[in-house]
Amino acid sequence: MSRMIHSLSVLTLLLVLAGCSGSDTDWNAKNIRGLMPDLEFKLTATDGEPFTPEDRAGQVRLLFFGFTNCPDICPATMARLQNAVKQMPEAMRDEVTLLFVSVDPERDTPERVGEYVDFFGDNIVGLTSDEETLRTLAKRYRTTFGYGKPDENGDYDVSHSNAVYVFDGQGRARLLIRSGQSISQISEDLETLVRQGRD
Predict the structure, then answer these.
(1) Span 48-71, average pLDDT
(2) Domains delineated in the chain
């Protein structure tokens, strides 16, 4: 009898483990579920008003740190993400929001950030804040940024990560989009997250 109970216990454990291992999707992006904190911040939107994750609760949100004078990484990333959203079924596109956080508050006023994100399309929220708040937020997601030495015109470069963090409708960290991912792969992951949120 005890041997039967033991066998049933082992069988039950194996079934549970099998269910756990197959419960998550095979993502194209890096799965960061449980490895990063939930989406949490209070920043300034392009209209000058405070903005928090609750303002777009229920939507899949992509968090990207950059700056409007960025010559390469930022525009390429923004265009890539927008093209990925455009590849999704039309009924799903409004359920994804890109959060562009400028880490150059000295030059990037809310108005300037607004003009920048408007260039790339809809469903993009431009955000910024003071440097201390931005550094705290960057540290929360294990990244950083820095400023180069100003030239004779006062212009300077800003170093920052090209990481894109993806959060589900409940604000839980789910994915880290890899730089080598294709637009179709990004679109596929976003579509899966939207579907999961509807279940």
Answers:
(1) 96
(2) 27-198 (3.40.30.10)
